[in-house]
Design goal:
This protein is α/β, with parallel strands linked by helices. The protein contains four helices and 13 strands. The longest helix has 9 residues.
Length: 208
């Protein structure tokens, strides 16, 4: 069976290594905080928090401690708080090793569209444009297909871009793919998903 949201988040957590400073985007990426485990990872939130903990247990939420998606989270003994200018200084200054982001579309050359759908009201682009320009590695976590069953891994994006040729790896409910020269390369398939099924669900070029 394809991976569910938590399994995708757990797989994304495997991308992280001790000592990394990591930014988690809104949506499925926020769940990665629950799967860091014993790794020495420092999670950064662009609303001004360094050292995010996992989601709180029910009944222990603190409405003043939230991530960029306005979800309640927990703090750690080493957590630091600061203003948005300092937060984006970290991002733009190349201090963040990896960003794990959601997406609406990813193109085979690594183009990313994750901030708006024309004609729909959006609150703003958030920090995604700064993140994809400033971090060392961009990992996208998203469903492989949209609600209509259409591939979200495309030959070229149809939505406004967040960044051009910025994505390094994509983790979907069907598997893991890397952006390489000429298209996408399959790294692994989700449990119970065949390579043929993954290929059939993908519009983007998949290279051997």
């Amino acid at each position: 069976m394809p991976w569910d949201r938590n399994q995708m988040a757990a797989r994304a957590a495997q991308e992280l290594e001790d000592g990394m400073y990591v930014n988690l985007g809104i949506g499925i990426p926020t769940l990665v905080a629950n799967y860091v485990g014993d790794k020495d990872i420092t999670l950064q939130s662009e609303n001004g928090m360094l050292g995010m903990g996992p989601f709180p247990v029910e009944g222990e939420e603190d409405a003043d401690v939230i991530n960029a998606g306005k979800q309640t989270i927990t703090e750690l003994p080493r957590t630091a708080y600061f203003d948005s200018a300092t937060s984006f200084g970290m991002i733009r200054g190349g201090k963040i090793a990896c960003a794990i982001l959601g997406a609406m579309e990813v193109a085979e050359n690594g183009d990313l569209a994750n901030w708006m759908i024309p004609g729909k009201l959006v609150k703003g682009m958030g920090g995604a444009m700064d993140l994809v320009a400033g971090v060392k590695r961009v990992v996208v976590v998203m469903d492989h297909q949209n609600k209509k069953g259409e591939s979200k891994l495309l030959k070229s994006c149809t939505l406004p871009l967040t960044g051009a040729a910025v994505v390094d790896r994509v983790i979907t409910n069907l598997g893991v793919l890397d952006v390489v020269e000429g298209g996408l390369r399959i790294v692994e398939c989700a449990d119970g998903v065949t390579e043929a099924e993954l290929r059939a669900a993908t519009e983007a070029t998949i290279v051997a």
